[in-house]
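ok, trying the design again with the full structure, not the truncated one.
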């Protein structure tokens, strides 16, 4: 009896691995459903007037992963600050926030969102520490960089910030 039961369970398991989840091919209006940016781009190149419905499964999965990581108290700040990033990493580490360098692009194809994980992390950091938290950490890192590197020009909005920051430092 145990052998029959074991064979039965084994055959169910093997058969269930072979079954594929069929994704819908068309929406209720008859528009083709596209699940990946690559497929969308290839279709768009061939026919720019093609009507499709986008279901961004990558973004859905990335948001779910971010929410799981947040629940497990894992926070990551994604940014690109060539001069300040090392200092920002040191400061954010004190708050339990890891960092990863990230240079994003503004180009999006057909409603696909490329940075869903990063955006969820940023929202959580803002929720937990406040809207201006990252900006204030950046300003501290910026000042420390300038103080540690007084001979390196540091331009912002056409103004070299070294004079102002070094004068502030010397007045204290």
């Amino acid at each position: 009896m145990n052998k029959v039961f074991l064979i039965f369970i084994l055959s169910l398991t093997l058969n269930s691995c072979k079954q594929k989840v069929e994704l819908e091919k068309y929406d209720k209006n008859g528009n083709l459903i596209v699940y990946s940016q690559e497929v969308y781009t290839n279709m768009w190149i061939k026919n720019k007037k093609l009507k499709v419905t986008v279901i961004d499964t990558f973004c859905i999965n990335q948001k779910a992963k971010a929410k799981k990581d947040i629940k497990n108290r894992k926070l990551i700040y994604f940014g690109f600050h060539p001069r300040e990033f090392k200092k920002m990493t040191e400061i954010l580490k004190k708050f339990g926030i890891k960092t990863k360098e990230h240079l994003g692009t503004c180009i999006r194809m057909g409603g696909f969102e490329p940075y869903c994980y990063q955006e969820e992390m940023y929202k959580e950091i803002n929720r937990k520490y406040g809207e201006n938290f990252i900006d204030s950490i950046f300003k501290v890192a910026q000042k420390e960089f300038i103080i540690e590197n007084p001979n390196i020009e540091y331009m912002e909005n056409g103004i070299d910030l070294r004079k102002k920051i070094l004068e502030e430092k010397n007045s204290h």
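Keeping the full-length input from now on. The beta strands are 32-34, 52-54, 75-79, 97-101, 155-156, 159-160.
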